[in-house]
Each structure stands twice: as C-alpha cells, then as structure tokens.
Backbone:
C-alpha cells in the first residue's frame, strides 16, 4: 500500500485525532482546527490518494482510500472526516468494531443520491486553471457556495494547495475526484454497525443532502448521536470555523458516561 503524505500538529504524546479531508482538498485543511485542539490532541491529517503530496496513480476505490489512511493514521482511536473523508472514517469504524472511541462527521457524504453524485462528478471533469491566484479564490467562493468564510483563511490554505504552471492549478488528480463521487453513491455500512459516540455537524445551507439519512442515523444510534447545525455551507471549517471547532473540542473532551 502506498504511503500517504501526512500533516501533523501538536504534541507527540497527545492523543491522536485522525482527520480526513474531502475531495479536491488536502490534509492542510485541518491546520486551523488543530490550533484550536492544541495542546490536548495531536492532529494527524493525511493527503488522500490523488491529492496533495500523496501518490497520484490509481486505483482510487473506496477500499483503497480506507487501506491507505489506516496505514497512515498512527493508531488513532478518535476519527474525524469532512465530506468524502467522513465516508472513509465511517467505513473505517465499521470495518474495525471497537477500535474507534469517538467519530466526528463534518457535513458528511455518507451516501450521495445518484443525481447529486452525477452532477458533482460531471462538474469535477472540467479542468480548473486560473489566470491568477486571486481569480482562483474568487471562483472557489462561487463553486463552494461559501458564505462567511474569511478570505484570509481560504487563501492561507489554498496557497499551499495550488501551483503556478501556465496558470494556477490545484494539486489533485481530476480522475481521482470523479471516481470518488461514484464511490460516494455506493451503499455504506449500516448505521447500526457504527454504534460509537458520534458528532454530526451539518452546514445550515449546505448543498450536500443529509435529510434522507438523518432519521435512520438517529434510530440506530439513539443517545450516541449528537447533531449540530452551524452557519454556512458545506465547508464548515471555512464558513463556521469557531463554531465547528468549539463543538468538536467539547465532544472529544466529554466523559464517556455523559454520551
């Protein structure tokens, strides 16, 4: 299995939290969250297959992503994922019962309706090249339907995730992204297979639907599931960094008997 490039923040002796980004992003997406979780936790955030500094070549199936992150997560028992990363974290918890103590799902893509997956995959096929870095940021606000995300926050992350090569381009493989959207439309494990304390953070204005899953998730987990809605859209660590980080920190620190 190809070794992923991993970003880490925090004390080596602190409990690790494995953080998995969504498609088109990178592990550096979690740097602002890591600053808010320090010094209590060490954030371990790999670049997924086909993204950032991780291997670009196929295969990019869901199982390949799961195998790769499990090899790079440093034995973490706390898992957090955003969008596609949340699906991977969920699958990991189902694959290894009893090994995940707490699970955080940020606006997760647990199961995309086929028409949503098709729209997203078709959109991902278009090459993204911009005449300037500023133009790339402007376009990201439009495409990601960002609301109150500070421009400095978005610029700081994408400065590392874009390269100037006959225009400004993202550092990911388009084919891997298209493949991921197909994988997100496949049936996930049952919610009853992942009966661990779970924090579900939803963007109030996200384009990614979860209403079709919420009742089943609540029925399967009962009091183990905590649902929070934060302002903004799908990228909750941009639109609602403070609110999301506060919820995550509180959830991770909560005594097990209170959950």
Residues:
């Amino acid at each position: 299995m190809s070794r992923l490039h991993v970003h880490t923040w925090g004390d080596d002796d602190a409990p690790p939290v494995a953080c998995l980004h969504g498609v088109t992003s990178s592990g550096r997406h979690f740097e602002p969250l890591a600053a808010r979780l320090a010094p209590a936790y060490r954030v371990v955030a790999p670049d997924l297959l086909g993204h950032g500094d991780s291997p670009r070549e196929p295969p990019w199936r869901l199982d390949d992503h799961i195998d790769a992150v499990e090899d790079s997560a440093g034995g973490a028992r706390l898992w957090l994922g955003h969008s596609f990363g949340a699906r991977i974290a969920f699958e990991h918890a189902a694959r290894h019962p009893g090994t995940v103590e707490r699970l955080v799902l940020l606006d997760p893509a647990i199961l995309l309706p086929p028409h949503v997956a098709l729209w997203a995959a078709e959109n991902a096929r278009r090459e993204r090249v911009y005449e300037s870095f500023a133009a790339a940021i402007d376009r990201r606000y439009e495409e990601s339907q960002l609301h109150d995300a500070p421009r400095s926050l978005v610029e700081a992350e994408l400065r590392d995730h874009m390269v100037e090569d006959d225009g400004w381009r993202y550092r990911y493989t388009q084919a891997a992204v298209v493949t991921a959207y197909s994988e997100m439309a496949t049936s996930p494990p049952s919610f009853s297979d992942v009966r661990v304390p779970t924090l579900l953070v939803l963007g109030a204005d996200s384009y990614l639907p979860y209403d079709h899953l919420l009742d089943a998730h609540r029925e399967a987990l009962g009091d183990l599931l905590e649902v929070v809605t934060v302002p903004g859209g799908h990228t909750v660590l941009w639109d609602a960094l403070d609110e999301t980080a506060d919820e995550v920190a509180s959830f991770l620190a909560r005594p097990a008997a209170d959950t």
